[in-house]
Specification:
α14 packs across α15 (450-460). This protein is an alpha/beta fold and 582 residues long. Helix content is 31%, strand content 23%. The longest helix is centred in the N-terminal third of the chain and has 19 residues, at 120-138. It has a 10-stranded mixed sheet with strand order 8-7-11-13-22-21-20-16-14-15, with helices on both faces. A 5-stranded mixed sheet has the order 27-24-23-28-29.
């Protein structure tokens, strides 16, 4: 019998100078925290968190770290942008990184693969996807012989017949040589949308954020996108938002002349993160403080992975400073109190003064849900505005500021001690604010991260583009007790229902990228890699049983609703004889 600890947070710190040489050397140590060279390293739980990077005036590596000896070397041009882009690949391959004229991957056995040096970020990510997915297929020959859907799909389309058993026993470098013989189009056919794309400014902040992005295997794209301020920003931002046409709760100005908005590019991934200065639109705002604060919360909670387990008390506070939204705290209370396996201490406050809200922010709270008005200058209280930057420290871990224009206040909460939260760019209508409030809490209570919450509301609601995440997008409320996190899209298909399931990574390390997902559906017998997506047609009794296993919201006929609302709708249809599945 043996045991090991999940290494979900950085334990060591590498100090580097702001130079290509030092950055190259530091990245070569990232793979030291990966527990194995076997294909099982595709599981997050076998990949330890890389050490922190701190830019200073000297270079120093802790004696506890040593470069991995996997026999793989990655060569890239001597540019910070190139090094940032290849860092996740170097970490996953346990590779040594050096600079040279071209982008190449070579092994100590003489194998050399020339990569696309014109677009290094895309080439590096393509190589990572190739090695990661093929590791997932090969590991089915080892300790985890699950019947994997992606393996069946690959074997149907690939002209290269892989000897999985032989590959499983080979060294990492030898196995990688075979991987590069596979047509990349076969990998494209079996892969799902990647969890995270990070657009990164090649700055000190970008460098120090690298270990956290690498741990997520993020698609790192060095970038310097266009920025807009003043009147130019106003038109740009208004064009970016989906207009709801509803009456809003605020008439204050959304934009100030000094506001700096960033036109973050679109990406084919579940989440997009901006690492740099400015206010990103349709993207999470990475704040290094959120990752540092998440570590502090984990240490205080006594949890190895930074999140509460089922024996811990959850402290949640709901503050409603808006008369027209007084029904929201009651709705949230119903959702949170249904957490049978997680004891909850819930506090509800109405019409707080600035002093009273200041005290709430100072108290230890796992989740804060604020309802009311906000502006860049503060959160509205009964006696004025509270600028959260005037408090000494935020002891709120995760938050949802469901208030107009709460971006800056949320950012300040993270800078003062919070892990991360959901905020708004602009004015939000009462109608949509109420709907999104309940859906976010429903998602959080099933183990979703705040980043996943943002992705889902952006995909499925008319005003999802008005919301953003600041801080650590991987922060969450609890570890859900379900195997993984689903979003079910349901539509009627003749006498049956068409079910499309998107599997997201969840808070717990078991069910992040590379984990395994399966369902109780009779028509879906095999496991899938997280993240994944599949569809099937089912009869109502089987669908009802499947949906009853969790409290996750669903998308029915293109509308995101709660599970209870869906059941009521279907029951009404069936009782009236209008259900086409009859």
């Amino acid at each position: 019998m043996g045991s090991r600890a999940w290494r979900c947070r950085p334990k060591e710190t590498i100090t580097i100078r702001d130079s290509v040489k030092d950055l190259c050397e530091a990245i070569s140590y990232f793979g030291a925290t990966v527990s194995t060279t076997s294909p099982e390293r595709a599981f997050t739980t076998l990949r330890g968190h890389p050490p922190r990077l701190r830019v200073s005036d000297s270079f120093e590596v802790p004696q506890s770290l040593s470069k991995p000896e996997a026999g793989i070397t990655i060569t890239v041009p001597a540019k910070k942008s190139a090094l940032l882009a290849v860092a996740p690949l170097a970490y996953y391959l346990l590779a040594t990184v050096k600079t040279g004229e071209r982008f190449t991957i070579e092994t100590d056995t003489g194998f050399i693969h020339n990569m696309d040096s014109e677009n290094i970020p895309d080439a590096a990510h393509s190589a990572l996807i190739r090695c990661f997915y093929l590791d997932c297929l090969v590991r089915t020959e080892g300790l985890y012989p699950f019947d994997l859907q992606e393996r069946h799909d690959f074997e149907e389309i690939s002209e290269v017949s892989l000897d999985y058993s032989k590959l499983y026993g080979q060294s990492l470098s030898k196995r990688m040589e075979t991987y590069f013989e596979v047509d990349h189009r076969c990998i494209d056919e079996i892969k799902s949308d990647w969890p995270v794309t990070a657009f990164v400014e090649p700055s000190t902040t970008g460098i120090e954020s690298l270990p956290h992005l690498v741990y997520e295997l993020a698609d790192i794209q060095p970038a310097d996108p266009p920025r807009y301020t003043g009147d130019e920003a106003r038109q740009f931002v208004l064009d970016a938002f989906l207009q709801s046409g509803q009456k809003t709760r605020s008439t204050s100005l959304v934009f100030e002349n000094e506001a700096n908005f960033v036109d973050v590019p679109e990406a084919e991934s579940r989440q997009t993160v901006w690492v740099g200065n400015g206010i990103p639109l349709n993207s999470s705002k990475f704040l290094l403080e959120g990752y540092k604060n998440h570590t502090v919360v984990a240490d205080q909670a006594g949890s190895n992975d930074g999140n509460r387990d089922s024996s811990s008390m959850i402290n949640a506070s709901v503050v409603c400073n808006e008369e027209t939204m007084e029904s929201e705290p009651g709705d949230i209370k119903k959702v949170i109190n249904s957490l049978d396996d997680f004891p909850v201490e819930l506090s509800i406050y109405n019409h707080l003064s600035t002093h009273e809200l200041r005290q709430v922010l100072k108290e230890k709270t796992d989740y804060l849900h604020f309802v009311g008005h906000a502006s860049p200058d503060g959160l509205e209280c009964s006696d004025g505005m509270l600028d959260v930057s005037t408090i000494e420290q935020s002891n709120v871990s995760t938050f949802f500021l469901n208030a107009c224009q709460s971006f800056r206040q949320g950012k300040r909460l993270v800078e003062l001690g919070s892990s991360g939260g959901i905020v708004t760019y602009s004015d939000i209508s009462d109608k949509y604010a109420l709907e999104i409030s309940g859906l976010v809490v429903q998602l959080l209570k099933t183990g979703a991260t705040i980043g996943t919450c943002l992705s889902i509301i952006q995909e499925t609601t008319p005003i999802g583009g008005h919301y953003a995440v600041v801080g650590n997008h991987s922060a969450g409320l609890i570890q859900g007790d379900d195997n993984s996190l689903y979003l079910q899209r349901i539509s009627e298909d003749g006498k049956r229902y068409h079910l499309e399931v998107t599997v997201y990574a969840a808070v717990t390390p078991d069910y992040k990228i590379g984990g395994l997902s399966n369902t109780t559906l009779d028509s879906v017998e095999r496991h899938s890699i997280i993240p994944s997506q599949f569809s099937t047609n089912v009869e109502w009794p089987e669908l009802e049983e499947f949906l009853s296993l969790t409290d996750l919201p669903v998308v029915y006929e293109d509308e995101l609703i709660t599970k209870d609302t869906l059941f009521e709708t279907i029951e009404q249809q069936r009782s009236s004889g209008t259900d086409s599945s009859e």
